[in-house]
Amino acid sequence: MGSPEARAERLRVLIAVAPFLPMPPEELADALPSSDLQVLAGATLEDLDLANACLAVESSMRAEMFQAVERLGALVAGGSGGLSDRVGSLPFPERVDAIQAIMDCLWVDR
């Protein structure tokens, strides 16, 4: 398994490779630096499982953020001014929902 740094490097390369998949190995070899190919060659099934779990969490977070943007858009559509003006002009319950949507988008720290 190696050091934590080596495992982190394998994880970085596996996640970087994900957008290229599925791709024939020879094309993948052309798309990656040789140093990344060497790191990839040392990856284990455990490393792959970890990368897949990270990608699943990322996908889930993106979906939740997209839903929050949709909620926010529905609440402020048709208003005038910038986002803060539109949110500020909403009735209290909708304003709370809009602020929650903004937080769910990770646009502000909680």
What does the overall shape look like? Answer: elongated
Q: Strand share of the residues?
A: under 5%
Uncertain stretches: none
Sheet with most strands: none
For the secondary structure, the number of strands is 0
Number of helices: 6
Distance between the termini: 36 Å
Helix content: over 70%
Radius of gyration: 21 Å
Structural class, from helix and strand content? mainly alpha
Mean pLDDT reading: 91
Q: Quaternary status of these chains?
A: single chain
SSE pattern, N- to C-terminal: HHHHHH
Plain-language structure description:
This protein has 110 residues and is mainly α. Helix content is 73%, strand content 0%.
State the gist of this model.
By secondary structure, the protein is an all-alpha fold. 73% of the residues lie in helices and 0% in strands.
SSE order and pairing:
Elements: H1 4-17, H2 25-31, H3 34-41, H4 45-76, H5 83-88, H6 92-104
Features:
0% strand; 110 residues; elongated
